[in-house]
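Quick one before lunch.
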Amino acid sequence: MCIELRDYGFTHEEFFAAENFLNQIKSDNENFIPGRVIEIRRNMYKVISRYGEVPAELGGGFYHSLRSGEEFPVTGDFVILKYNPDGSSLISGLLPRRSKFSRTDFGGHAEGYVKNIREQVTAANFDYVFILSSLNHDFNINRIARYLTASWQSGAFPVVVLSKRDLCDDPGSKEAETRKIAKNVPVISVSAKTGDGLDALAPFLEPGKTIVFLGSSGVGKSSLLNTLAGETVMDVKNIRGNDSKGRHTTTHRQLFRLPSGTLVIDTPGLRELGLWDSREGMSLAFAELEELFSRCRFSDCTHRSEPGCAVLAALADGSLSPEQWKNYQIQRKETAFVEQHSSYLKQKKEIQKTIARNVRQIMKKET
Ligand SMILES: Nc1nc2c(ncn2[C@@H]2O[C@H](COP(=O)(O)OP(=O)(O)OP(=O)(O)O)[C@@H](O)[C@H]2O)c(=O)[nH]1
Ligand SMILES: [Mg+2]
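Model of the magnesium ion complex:
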């Protein structure tokens, strides 16, 4: 079997990154080939390569580079394989990611205090994030707002997909409510069951582009994938009747190629989305709100009671909703907390300080 990796989203960028990697390890061994991770179960990887789908595991050299700060590959990652035609191939390197979706892993949360919180990368190298939220009783605007921040931070473009349109009498009002918090983002309501609204997704279903489906359990991520694929590629289970919650049917992330040539990463529903490093994502998600800050009379305005406060004025004239202001404050607090408690982000800050210092030195020399 001969597969064109290009059909799996392998762009020129990744091609050159792969060449670069092979130059660095000084290998012209033709068994070193690029591939894309399409599924991970425990420690076993499934990687699509020019030889089709191959089973793979992490090579010893890769573990070595993990110690120096390299990350574990996730679904969607482009990797370098040491190809073994007779068994498991070895993943020897991870190519740079052009986007990644991260959440906070509170794994170190013990006895009431936080030991160490870490980044958990969910998926990589996608062009669009479909944030799915269902139009049934589980509709939750604050949750969409959190997903928007994390999606902007990922480096890809968010699209809000309101699912189960057939179960909602007035999808228009929910769409309008969502648009208020999802500025500059397409908001599309669809039904995977009847096919209603799916046409509006067409502009994003481009060949070679990758879309990651995110959202709580039971919102219909796998159902939408099945409908777009035209066949059942993922299991789907009924939600609970009493509270519309899902049953965590999908248990691991998987990448599929649709008949249109679009790649889709289906993910398990997240119980909660702890925001990771999200400062830039917040600035994009709340661009209009943050723009207000520059219009306050006092530069250190706390937006509580000061005269000439643009935020209070926007709240008073209705151009800023109290919910959105509350969302902003909660997310800002959470982001600050993560910044304080994560060693990675402390390092990032240190690097930023060094960069700023270097820039100042250069400026001094030039003047
Ligand atoms: N009426 C209706 N039901 C839907 C629609 N889409 C999904 N469902 C139902 O919602 C339930 C959950 O769907 P899934 O596709 O398994 O949801 P999921 O988001 O993949 O859930 P997890 O894998 O647990 O994260 C199933 O009973 C589906 O049949 C829709 O458009 N209309
Ligand atoms: Mg699913």
